[in-house]
């Protein structure tokens, strides 16, 4: 049975950054991931990472943009940490070996991004995520951090009110094993597989959110689900925001640049929620093209496209056969990223001693109700590092205790029970597709009370049917049966929290747009939703927003 | 469209040999092969093992053989792969299969990747801010780092077929990434260790790696770039360097390869024992009428002067 001071679950940016920080702090840390770290979905983050590096910029201006874009739901203390410490963290990435694109002086070049008043996004062509992921993994090798890759975590070990590791299935052998640790950092990323269309990987299945939720940790602001306005029609692949940053137009079927009527000042550079709603409105009013709109690059300089958007050009061509220099690209909004997540403080600590979380699966509250492009990678490196440091400090203060035998036996019995079920016609796939369709239609870009009630009923129904779906076997080498089934269970639990949180928030703010409550309501709703798991479903409570010195203002673009 | 997927099944626990199992699926022709496999797993057979993650061609995890050709499953559509209503899906060939489409990536991929120590070691103390680097250098590194480690180049490598211990074009491309990074302070050491056995000099420059790379990274040229640098710092065995130099000198002087001279130069003129060792081979070649003319009889090819001019231009550059 592996034993370490700390285990980090998840091998993307936040996970690797946490592991590296813990290692540098002297802890015995290991990383566990259901795919090899180099295959993590952080590689799909095309855009870049924000940092106020230019002399004309300041972390305060960055914080201002972040809070404003987040429609004042962001915790301003956390936003300050993000923007202030992020500068050093981005430089640290460069020192590790990240090859940021440079300006004429050889310094890191900055790109304008939607929702930011100044160019502030460090980029690498249009493949920042893929490059940073490689470099973080290079550092994992350099610092010799052990990696248990292709291990699927089935539950956290919580005893005596303390988190003491996790139980996981080693996919290569099929065995269930305990990973004993003094502290655990969750960094499992997103949950996009419960939405269709979605920009997520096949592996983004709400694992960390569900593991924490089941261990009694609340999920915060789960109603805030961000859609990316421009994803390739039918494929759900992001056509990066850098495309609009470079000057691509959004046009409807009549060839009009419709953003003029939704965000007359910023046009295509308005924040993501604004663009997504504008596109959905165009489609709803009959000005769409096959359920989407067009993103037009044809007026842009082709050499510059080659330099700035090579991967976009490649992927769009590879997946849909379109040459962006010659044809406009059909795009539509697709679910992109949960903004809410596991409740953590600015150190990444959850309310459960020994459990930390960072990155997309966590909610430290920096994004408020709508996330700025380029802030997600930053969140991963800043709060990933902080979680790693905090976990190392905590682990240094307590002894390691092994998980009890009974816990392992329970897990094995539970897993074996799954082979005795009779699914009665439902498959994992049929349930997941029903879930994904419901989430998109009822809990997508726009919601209303009636639709959310339907979604709640639907998720309840799916959960009941899920309880009857079985698998033929649990163990054996590379048998994905157990993980595939558990992933759906994770998503159903978390979907229930998303729907319940969306039901209670009777206002429109950022990514949460209620057609029956179209206005922002600061008097009643300037607060976070906090969903906890109970036998009767999610129980909702509220937490105040941390406001240091930026008072809410009306948000327009 | 209705498609029969004939999918390779192999379970080390129950049967010794892999076989194709058929699954019928109604699926969009625009859907990817990875989508199809996921549908089969979720709806028909949860035990079906394959790797795959991002579904957009970035993570490099879903390399397999589709219709007999090595492909990245998420970037290959059903419509383009189907033949007479069927698509075969198998694992890549030159490595141990662990189950179904899952192969031993540790041996094939990650060990070799680690072997080239692919992290930069910048000089200390580190600058206060970022290192200053020209964007031209960055663009070159970016191209190299667009590698998704799909390992199609290693799969196509002709050296790997006969020697699986060869570090291979993928890892060497990664090595190029650190060697070419101006921030790295260990370039020379790297070139020496990459010149050890099973390293860069084992490449037989067949250009298959370049042919196979889906991202146009040109691994073969990256290996040449490493070799050129290695020669400059005196890395590699004397024989290898002699061979490399003689090849170039011969083409420059005569416009084509002087094989006799290449053989003699490679061993080194004063290396009597080395020259003697070549005698049996030379005699064998002589018996079959394949001995090249002694090098003082080697003639220039027509137009050799033009070839020399190309060399001179290149040297000036």
* Silhouette of chain B: globular
- Overall pLDDT confidence of chain A: 95
Helix-residue proportion of chain A: 25-40%
Q: Roughly how much helix do the residues of chain B carry, as a percent range?
A: 40-55%
What is the count of helical runs of chain A? 15
Helix and strand content put the structural class of chain A at alpha/beta
What can you see in these coordinates?
The complex is a heterodimer of chains A (557) and B (317). By secondary structure, chain A is α/β, with parallel strands linked by helices. Chain A is built from 15 helices and 22 strands. Chain A has helices at 13-24, 59-69, 76-96, 128-142, 207-214, 241-245, 272-284, 302-308, 310-320, 375-395, 405-417, 428-442, 449-466, 481-504, 522-525; strands at residues 3-9, 29-33, 49-50, 110-111, 121-122, 147-149, 151-159, 162-170, 175-186, 219-220, 225-232, 237-238, 249-251, 293-296, 329-338, 341-343, 355-357, 362-363, 446-447, 513-514, 527-534, 537-544. In chain A, the strands form 5 sheets. In chain A, strands 1, 2, 6, 7, 8, 9 and 17 form a 7-stranded mixed sheet that branches. In chain A, strand 21 (527-534) and strand 22 (537-544) form a beta hairpin. In chain A, helix 3 crosses helix 10, helix 5 (207-214) crosses helix 14 and helix 13 (449-466) runs antiparallel to helix 14 (481-504). The radius of gyration of chain A is 22 Å and the shape is globular. The mean pLDDT of chain A is 95. Chain B has 317 residues and is of the alpha+beta class. Chain B has helices at 33-43, 78-81, 105-115, 135-145, 152-156, 158-162, 168-179, 187-194, 208-212, 219-232, 238-254, 259-267, 272-277, 279-287, 304-316; strands spanning 2-9, 19-26, 63-66, 69-72, 86-90, 97-99, 102-103. In chain B, the strands form 2 sheets. Chain B has a 5-stranded mixed sheet, with helices on one face. In chain B, strands 6-7 form a two-stranded antiparallel ribbon. In chain B, helix 7 (168-179) packs across helix 10 (219-232) and helix 11 packs antiparallel against helix 12. The longest helix of chain B has 17 residues, at 238-254. The chains are: A alpha/beta (557), B alpha+beta (317). At the A-B interface, helix 3, helix 4, helix 9, helix 12 and helix 14 of A face helix 1, helix 3 and helix 4 of B.
């Amino acid at each position: 049975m592996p034993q370490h001071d700390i285990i980090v679950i998840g091998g993307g940016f936040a996970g690797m950054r946490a592991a590296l920080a813990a290692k540098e702090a002297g802890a015995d840390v290991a990383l566990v991931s259901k795919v090899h770290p180099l295959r993590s979905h952080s590689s799909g983050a095309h855009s870049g990472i924000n940092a106020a590096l230019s002399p004309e910029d300041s972390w305060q201006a960055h914080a201002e943009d972040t809070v404003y874009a987040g429609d004042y739901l962001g915790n301003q203390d956390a936003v300050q940490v993000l923007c202030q410490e992020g500068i050093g963290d981005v430089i640290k990435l460069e020192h590790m070996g990240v090859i940021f694109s440079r300006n004429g002086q050889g310094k890191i070049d900055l790109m304008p991004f939607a929702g930011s008043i100044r160019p502030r996004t460090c980029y690498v062509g249009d493949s920042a995520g893929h490059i940073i992921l490689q470099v973080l993994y290079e550092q994992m090798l350099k610092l010799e951090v052990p990696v248990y890759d292709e291990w699927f975590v089935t539950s956290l070990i919580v005893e005596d009110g303390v988190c003491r590791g996790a139980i996981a299935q080693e996919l290569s052998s099929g065995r269930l094993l305990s990973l004993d640790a003094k502290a655990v950092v969750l960094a499992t990323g997103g949950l996009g597989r419960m939405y269709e269309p979605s920009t997520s990987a096949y592996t983004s299945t709400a694992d960390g959110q569900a593991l924490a939720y089941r261990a009694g940790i609340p999920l915060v602001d789960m109603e805030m689900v961000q859609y990316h306005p421009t994803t390739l029609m039918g494929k759900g692949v992001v056509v990066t925001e850098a495309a609009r940053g470079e000057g691509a137009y959004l046009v409807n079927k009549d060839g009009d640049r419709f953003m003029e009527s939704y965000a007359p000042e910023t046009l295509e550079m308005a924040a993501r929620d604004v663009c997504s709603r504008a596109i959905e409105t165009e489609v709803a009013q009959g000005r769409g093209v096959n359920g989407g709109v067009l993103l037009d690059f044809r007026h842009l300089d082709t050499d510059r496209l080659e330099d700035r958007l090579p991967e976009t050009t490649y992927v769009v061509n590879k997946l849909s056969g379109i040459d962006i220099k010659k044809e406009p690209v059909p795009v539509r909004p697709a679910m992109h990223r949960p903004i809410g997540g596991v409740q953590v403080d600015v150190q990444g600590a959850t309310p459960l001693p020994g459990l930390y979380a960072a990155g997309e699966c966590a909610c430290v509250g920096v994004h408020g109700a709508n996330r700025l492009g380029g802030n997600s990678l930053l969140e991963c490196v800043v709060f990933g590092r902080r979680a790693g440091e905090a976990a190392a400090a905590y682990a240094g203060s307590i002894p390691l205790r092994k998980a009890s035998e009974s816990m392992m036996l329970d897990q094995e019995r539970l897993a074996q029970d799954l082979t005795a079920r009779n699914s009665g016609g439902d498959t994992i796939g049929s349930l997941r597709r029903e879930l994904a369709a419901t989430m998109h239609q009822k809990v997508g870009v726009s919601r209303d009370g009636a639709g959310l009630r339907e979604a709640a009923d639907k998720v309840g129904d799916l959960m009941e049917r899920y309880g009857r779906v079985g698998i033929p076997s649990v163990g054996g080498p590379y048998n994905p049966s157990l993980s595939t089934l558990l992933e759906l269970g994770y998503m159903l639990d978390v979907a229930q929290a998303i729907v319940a949180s969306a039901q209670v928030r009777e206002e429109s703010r950022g990514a949460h747009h209620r057609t029956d409550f179209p206005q922002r309501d600061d008097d009643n709703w300037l607060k976070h939703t906090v969903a906890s798991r109970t036998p009767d479903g999610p129980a909702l409570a509220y937490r105040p927003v941390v406001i240091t010195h930026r008072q809410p203002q009306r948000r327009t673009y | 469209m209705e498609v029969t997927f004939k999918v390779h099944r192999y379970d080390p626990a129950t049967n010794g040999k892999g076989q194709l199992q058929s699954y019928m699926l109604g699926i969009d022709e625009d859907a990817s092969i990875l989508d199809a496999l996921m549908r089969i797993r979720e709806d028909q057979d949860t035990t079906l093992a394959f790797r795959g993650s991002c579904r957009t061609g970035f993570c490099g995890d879903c390399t397999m053989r589709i219709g007999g050709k090595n492909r990245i499953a998420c970037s290959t559509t059903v419509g383009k792969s189907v033949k007479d209503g069927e698509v075969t899906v198998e694992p890549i060939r030159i490595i141990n299969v662990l189950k179904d489409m899952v192969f031993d990536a540790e041996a094939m991929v990650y060990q070799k990747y680690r072997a080239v120590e692919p992290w930069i070691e910048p000089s200390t103390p580190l600058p206060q801010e970022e290192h200053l680097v020209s964007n031209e250098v960055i663009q070159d590194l970016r191209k190299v780092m667009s590698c998704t480690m799909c390992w199609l180049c290693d799969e196509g490598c002709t050296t790997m077929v006969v020697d699986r211990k060869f570090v291979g074009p993928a890892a060497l491309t990664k090595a190029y990434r650190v060697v070419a990074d101006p921030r790295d302070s260990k370039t020379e050491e790297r070139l020496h260790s990459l010149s050890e056995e099973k390293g860069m000099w084992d490449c037989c420059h067949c250009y298959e790696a370049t042919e196979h790379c889906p991202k146009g990274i040109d691994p073969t040229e990256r290996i040449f770039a490493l070799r050129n640098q290695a020669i400059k710092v005196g890395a590699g065995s004397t024989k290898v360097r002699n061979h490399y130099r003689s090849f170039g000198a011969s083409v420059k002087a005569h416009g084509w390869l002087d094989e006799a001279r290449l053989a003699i130069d490679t061993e080194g003129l004063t290396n009597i024992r080395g020259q003697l060792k070549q005698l049996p081979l030379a005699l064998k070649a002589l018996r079959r009428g394949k001995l090249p003319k002694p090098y003082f009889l080697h003639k220039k090819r027509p137009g050799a002067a033009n070839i020399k001019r190309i060399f001179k231009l290149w040297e000036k550059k």
